[in-house]
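User: I'm new to structure prediction. If I give you an amino acid sequence, what do you actually give back? Let's try with this one:
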Amino acid sequence: MLGTIRAFWNDQRGIAMILVAIMLPVIVGFALLVIDMSRANSLHNDLQRGVDAMALATAAELDGRADSIVRGDRALSTLVFNTYRFGDKAAGDPPGAAELAAAGVARRYLRSLPTNDSDLITTADVITDEAGEASAARFVEVSVTPVGFSAVFPASFIGGTNSFNISTVSVAGFNRAICDTVPMFICNPFEGVTAGTGKTFQQAFADGDTYSREFRILKVDSNPGPGNFGLLDNNLLSLRDAFAIGTSGTCYNREAIETKTGVTLGAVNAGLNVRFDLYSSSLKQQDNNPLYRPSKNVRKGAGKTSNCNKFAVATDGSAMGFPPGDGYNNATGMTLSTWARSSYWSLNHGGAAMPPIPSASHPTNKSAPPSRYDVYRYELDPAHYSVGDKSPAPSKESGVPACYKGPAETLTDSPDRRLITMAVVNCRADQGKINGHTALRPDAYVSAFLTNPIQKQDNSKDDEDASANEKPISFEIVDVDGPLGNDTLDHLLRDEPQLYR
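Assistant: Good question. You get back a string of structure tokens that encode the predicted 3D arrangement of the chain. For your 501 residues, that looks like this:
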């Protein structure tokens, strides 16, 4: 008897079945947990992808216009279709994936974000007056109404719950960059002396305050203001080449730029004068490079002693570049809109009377007298053949480039080589940032028409000789970015909504 009991006790056959029976609930439980975690993670990912897409679509409309929030809501409800799986469904819902629609999310428009991502968004960041402050909306926060999730694992057996809610949040913002600009800024002449006064450059342009006025700018000093310019950080090794080619080698964030000290005026001059068919000694080897091509119309009032690498203005009355404007105001760096149109035309076009040139670049008044840029474009019109007209002897100047040795077909005006794009800065308000290499927000970006080559006080010296002392850069404003402009800068803008949280 004892032997039988001892044999039974020592017999291990079937022990695996006992262990399996004990561990099976644990194994099944872990398997159900893995399945639930996978389902919950998939639901969370679906919701996050959906809310990210909604936030990006909405943020793409936040371009600073008065109807940006209206357009943002429209994008949120109509532009994006997203679905999710494994969330609880209401009775009668079809099988398969559920749609994440605008009705299932909440949104808040924000004017700003806390510096640290870990900081909560405060009431100061939130746009409360969505009708009146729509133009200030730069970000949108989209959050999913919590979606129920029912677990397969029977958590209620161990005192837990079989269901819980899953929600996600996304914050996106509108980032606008501008490309193909020269690395230069000018001071806003319409900025008020005290904060909150004056005009934005866009508003001044829309009001016609910039039309046909000659702007004259010199380098920025320790007290920058109207009539000054400075440089921006850029990605090109040569500042001269940046101005000659017409790009800084980077796209600038529309909301923040950083200034660069040390204005190398000789390099700026040499680069800009390429556009007038003038190649300084260091650029002589580029006179056949299409990147350094001049404009198709380079009439500039050159005297008989001018050559391909040095400009001398005609002093004998035999040629005339665009005349200076009347009534130059040193406080603003601008002239009045009047200038000797008839004299320019008569001298350079065989004594002919000024034709009825339309004021195509004026933002509103198309019957105004033409600007220099309007006259320049009229001369380029093949119907008039005015570029080839010559002024009297001894200069006998025409607008046809004579120094550029590149292929003739590369002399195109697309883009126009007498136009440069640059930033406008409120130099009084941002003086500390200009001098301190701190990011600042430009007031505008403008398209400027170079009216004449940049000269030197001592014209016997080379363009890049800093001791020669430059004269001002002269130009007219042709357009401005934003809804108040003529839209010729739109092709330079890059709208880039991006996720922030």
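You can read the tokens as a compact description of the fold. Here is one thing that stands out. Residues 15-59 form the longest helix (45 residues).
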